[in-house]
Amino acid sequence: MHLYTYDGSFEGLLTVVFEAFERKAWPTSIEQEHLAQPSMFGQTIPVLTDEEKANRVWQGLQKKLSVGAQQALYHTYLWEQPGFEQVIFDYIKLVFSSAENVEGNYAAPCVLQVTQAAKQVHREKHRMEAFVRFQKTADELYFATISPDFNVLPLIVHHFEKRYADQRWAIYDTLRRYGAFYDLHQVSLVHLELPVNQRRVSPAAETMHEEEDKYQQLWQVYFDNVNIPERKNPKLHLRHIPKRYWKYLSEKQPRQLK
């Protein structure tokens, strides 16, 4: 039994793949080093991230996989569900051990799992792009918080960089405690060291732009006017906008008493 530990990065996971092939010691488990529990009956192999080794693995995959399949592997990494590292390893091992293309081999559990995981992440990415709502602060920064089911922040920053290229903005993932900040030139990832029990991050009321409340109320009034009661279809509405996304939408927030 071989437990491989790594730093949690995608490059670190690819380094694990390189080390396992070099040792010919296939992992029975792959875990992030800060979460790993030492095994009494096997060997724990700590792996340090090596960009050169990671690049060699990735270049090998590029020769054997389509761009779509490469993206699916990365999306599976962002999926973050229990055991995702082993799924990725099994997929890569199958790729390198097969003479033929494995992308359509859904009889292999790892191929089916990667395909399904990638679809879930892709769907969450599009929903975040559609439902994120910014609030304007007093210093002209547009700020939004998200708490997606999967780690899609790296996938949505390009969308907002193009759409809001002329304004400074920040999107913060409250579950993973990191965010993206756009300064009119480039996007940078930022980390806040907060207590584990402090998940909610939002601008204080006194830091908000004086017009922000009016913008929120105008959006709510617009929504009320375009919403035709006779055409309400709650089931269809929930299918397109699941309830867990309502916290992002201005039109779903409690109306302020006048």
TrEMBL record:
Top-level lineage group: Bacteria
Location of the DUF4130 domain: 84-251
Official protein name in the record: DNA metabolism protein
Organism of provenance: Pontibacter korlensis
